[in-house]
Amino acid sequence: MANYRETIAKNVAPLLKDGDFVNLGVGIPTLVGNFLPEGVDIILHGENGSAGIRGRLAENVYEDAGTFLEWERTHKGEMTDYTVGHKDLLDAGSRPITLVPGACNFDIVTSFTMPRGGHLDKTVLGAMQVAQNGDLANWLVPGQMATGMGGAMDILAGTKTVIIATTLTAKNGRPKLLRECTLPLTAVRCVSTVVTEKCIAEIRDEKFHIVSMYPGITEEEIREAIDADIIFDDNMQIMVE
Amino acid sequence: MKNKVITIDKAMTFVKDGCSLMMTGFGQSGSPRHLIRALSKTDVKNLHTISDDLGVAEHGFDQTISALVNNKQISKAECCFIGQNPEASRQYIEGSLDIDFIPMGTFAERIRAGGAGIGGFYTKTGIGTLVEEGKETKVINGEKYLLELPLRADVAFLHAYKADRAGNAIFKYTARNYNTVMATAADTVILEAEQIVEIGDIEPDEVQLPGVFVDYVVEAEEDIL
After folding, report:
1. In Å, how far are A57, A158, B198 from B58, measured between CA atoms?
2. Which helix (H) or strand (E) holds A20?
3. Quick one: DSSP state of residue A235?
4. Is the CB of A90 less than 8 angstroms away from the CB of B27?
5. A188 vs B80, B128, B176: nearest CB
6. Of B93, B112, B128, the CB nearest to A109
7. How far apart are CA B193 and CA B132, in angstroms?
8. Which CATH class is domain B8-116+149-219?
9. Which ipTM was obtained for this model?
10. How many other CB atoms are found less than 10 A from the CB of residue A164?
11. What are the mean pLDDT values of chain A's consecutive 10-residue runs (241 residues total)?
12. CB contact (8 A) between residue B29 and residue A48
């Protein structure tokens, strides 16, 4: 498992289907865009006002302020091409992006009408904790981390299918898949599926159903890493390497 | 139609100590960088800001709201996300900057309510979380919703790619973000534009922000376009 982040992203990608309108969160979820199957038509939503994101520009464009400001000077105003980039065309992480033909841009009220109103099919987000009833915590560690919830709560309030892309355990080794979340929640009973580097778990009947495992990983390893009710599916699948 | 173009110095006279200030922008895009830079050179303090975030400082892009954070000109902020400005996190944890975090869709809709004469609305966003605490809830069609109230400001700073002298404006790509809604929800609305054209030069059906919402127009300087 050379690159666990890529492993997770590669295994989320097949869960996105032809015609889906999808929001990808920051971090591992953003990587999913790199692994979408050929010929599958998926529209990516950017909550800052895009439907039809192609991807980010090369990192050297924004690695330092001077380079970025210089790039802006040559990609501004009327000199515009959504397939090349523009200083006013960014993703929710403030990185320059390009769009696909047929894409559109809109204001923030319209942008949040999409998830909250049930118009978005799927979202892929990171997690600090997921509970077996589908509760998600991913925005606040009291006294330690305060970045704000951004748009996550609104996206979770109305999006039909919520996929979590995360490592199975935290950096300190503690389980992230729990009976109950101990951190402040982002939303209640919202998660459908959790994709980790070792297994894929579907949440049904307040249990984690392990439906797929990474080659070489044992049931024992999974049991030790999850502090919740789990069931190993009879028809166990093998994750993409 | 009235010519609303003023100098950036004149624009600064509308921002007073302790006033509430809306600023557009989602990170870099659509941020009124020229107005912010001018404000960062004044002595105005104790600002109550209402903005998506508090700037993007991680790559040294200090011409967004991070300039006001660095100067400690903000005492209270209502915003959604500060993950791209470590200095804002530092001031928040230290206690010198009071932040009220609001879910982004709720934030946008509260501003819309404030600008549209709507006294509040019920939303499912935040149910079962810290956001619900202290708020009235109501079951509608069998589902629980919470009441959110409108949000307005004394002054709003906006950024357009192009505007005419009457304030009719056009935005590029994702820079539209909060511009169209914040323009409706402040007592004094100041729009900076990269390009100012004569009244009549923009086709009526190409206008994205009606000039009737804009009080003043300021020309953005070339250097940080």
Report:
1. 18, 32, 38
2. none
3. E
4. yes
5. B128
6. B112
7. 39
8. alpha beta
9. 0.96
10. 29
11. 87 96 92 89 96 88 78 84 92 91 97 98 97 96 87 96 97 97 97 98 98 97 98 97 92
12. yes
Task: Report the amino acid identity of residue B1.
Answer: M
Which chain A residue shows the shortest CA-CA distance from B53?
A150
> What is the set of domains in chain A, with CATH numbers?
4-47+106-238 (3.40.1080.10), 50-104 (no CATH)
What length is written for chain B? 225
> Is the CB of A153 less than 8 angstroms away from the CB of B126?
yes
Note the pLDDT of residue A58.
79
Give per-residue pLDDT as tens, A160-192: 999 999 999 999 999 999 999 999 999 999 999
Tell me the pLDDT band of B77, cut-offs 50, 70 and 90: very high
Q: Which chain B residues are closer than 8 Å to A92 by Cβ?
A: 26-27
Amino acid found at A204: R
pLDDT digits 0-9 by tens, A185-214: 999 999 999 999 999 999 999 999 999 999
Tokens of B78: 């209502």
Is residue B74 less than 8 Å (CB to CB) from chain A? no
Q: Distance (Å, rounded) from C-alpha A226 to C-alpha A177?
A: 5
Are residues A52 and A44 in contact, defined by beta-carbon separation less than 8 angstroms? Answer: yes
Determine the residue among B81, B124, B129 to mutate to test chain A binding: the one whose Cβ has the most chain A Cβ atoms within 10 Å: B129
**Structure confidence at residue B171 (pLDDT):** 96
Structural tokens at position A178 = 């729990």
Query: What is the per-residue pLDDT for A2?
Result: 58
Q: Cβ–Cβ of B80/A151 closer than 8 Å? A: yes
Contact list in A for residue B56 (CB cut-off 8 A) is 94
HEC profile of A76-130: CCCCCCCCCCCCCCECCCCCEEEEEEEEEECCHHHHHHHHHCCCCCEEEECCCEE
Of B170, B180, B174, B162, the residue nearest B22 (C-alpha)? B180
- State the Cα–Cα distance between residues A179 and A132, nearest whole angstrom: 5
Q: Which of A6, A38, A47, A59 is catalytic?
A: A47
Q: Is the pLDDT of residue B225 over 70?
A: no
> What is the Cβ-side half-sphere exposure of residue B122, based on CA atoms within 13 angstroms?
10
- Note if A47 is an active site residue: yes
Say yes or no: B215 contacts chain A, CB-CB below 8 A.
no
For the stretch B158-205, pLDDT in tens is 999 999 999 999 999 999 999 999 999 999 999 999 999 999 999 999
Of the partner residues B56, B161, B175, the one whose CB lies closest to the CB of residue A94? B56
Q: Are strands B216-219 and A193-195 parallel, antiparallel or unpaired?
A: unpaired
Q: Which of A97, A122, A132, A166 is nearest to A14 (CA)?
A: A122
